[in-house]
C-alpha cells in the first residue's frame, strides 16, 4: 500500500471530456422516470440525460478505481487534496473537461466524499507525450497525481484593481446584501 505522496494512479485508457447534461422536451404521457416541469406547463416535461459513451467511460473508470482500492493498491486519498492530471498521448477535449470527468469518477467511486472547493482545493490538467521504446506500443491514458493540500490564505489588497473598484462597488454591494 502506498503511504507517500503523491499518490499516483494511471488509467490505461484514453480520457473523455466531462459531458454536459442535455435536455429534451417530452410529452407528459410518456414514461421517463424523474422529470421536472418545464416553465410551469403541465403538458410538457424536460428530461436531462448524458451521452451513453460518457456514462460507459465513467463506469469503466469507477470499476477500475474500486478494483485498485479493494486489492490494496490504492490508499485513502488525502482530504483536502490537489489533483493533477496528465493526459498521455491524446488530446480529445479541453483539459478542464477531461480533469472534471476524472474527478467526478473519483467521487463516484467513493474515494473522496465530494469535489467541492473544501475537498479538492486545487488541480490542473496537462497534455503530455510519453516516450516509448522502439516497437513498444504507444501508451495512452491518464496519469493522476494526488497530493495533500491545505487551503491557502492570501492578501488581495495589492492586486491591481482591488482598491480602485471596491469603493465604486460599495453601492452595488449594499443593494445585493
Describe the structure.
The protein is α+β, with helices and mostly antiparallel strands. Helix content is 27%, strand content 27%. It has three helices and seven strands, in the order E-E-E-E-H-E-H-E-E-H. The strands form two sheets. It has a four-stranded mixed β-sheet, with helices on one face. Strands 2-4-3 form a three-stranded antiparallel β-sheet, with no helix packed on it. Strand 5 (81-88), helix 2 and strand 6 (120-128) form a beta-alpha-beta unit. Helix 1 (52-70) packs across helix 2 (95-108). The protein is globular. The model is unreliable at 31-39 (pLDDT under 50).
Shape: globular
Any idea what the radius of gyration is? Answer: 22 Å
Would you report the number of β strands?
A: 7
How large a portion of the residues is in β-strands, by DSSP E? 25-35%
Mean pLDDT value = 82
Total helices: the number is: 3
| Distance separating the two termini | 50 Å
The helix/strand series, from N terminus to C terminus, equals EEEEHEHEEH
The proportion of residues forming helix, as a percent range, comes to 25-40%
Report low-confidence residues grouped into runs of 5 or more.
31-39
Order of adjacent strands in the largest pleated sheet: 1-7-5-6
Judged by helices, strands and strand pairing, the structural class is alpha+beta
How would you sum up the major sheet? Answer: 4 strands, mixed
Amino acid at each position: 500500500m502506498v503511504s507517500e505522496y503523491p499518490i499516483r494512479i494511471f488509467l490505461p485508457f484514453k480520457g473523455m471530456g466531462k459531458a454536459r447534461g442535455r435536455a429534451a422536451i417530452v410529452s407528459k404521457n410518456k414514461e421517463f422516470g424523474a422529470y421536472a416541469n418545464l416553465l410551469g406547463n403541465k403538458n410538457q416535461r424536460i428530461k436531462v440525460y448524458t451521452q451513453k459513451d460518457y456514462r460507459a467511460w465513467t463506469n469503466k473508470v469507477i470499476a477500475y478505481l474500486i478494483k485498485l482500492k479493494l486489492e490494496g493498491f490504492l490508499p485513502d486519498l488525502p482530504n483536502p487534496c490537489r489533483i493533477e492530471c496528465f493526459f498521455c498521448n491524446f488530446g480529445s477535449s479541453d483539459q478542464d473537461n477531461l480533469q472534471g470527468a476524472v474527478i467526478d469518477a473519483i467521487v463516484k467511486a467513493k474515494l473522496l466524499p465530494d469535489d467541492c472547493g473544501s475537498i479538492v482545493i486545487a488541480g490542473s490538467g496537462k497534455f503530455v507525450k510519453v516516450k516509448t521504446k522502439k516497437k513498444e506500443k504507444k501508451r495512452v491514458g491518464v496519469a493522476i497525481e494526488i497530493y495533500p493540500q491545505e487551503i491557502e490564505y492570501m492578501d488581495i489588497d495589492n492586486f491591481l484593481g482591488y482598491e480602485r473598484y471596491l469603493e465604486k462597488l460599495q453601492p452595488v454591494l449594499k443593494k445585493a446584501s
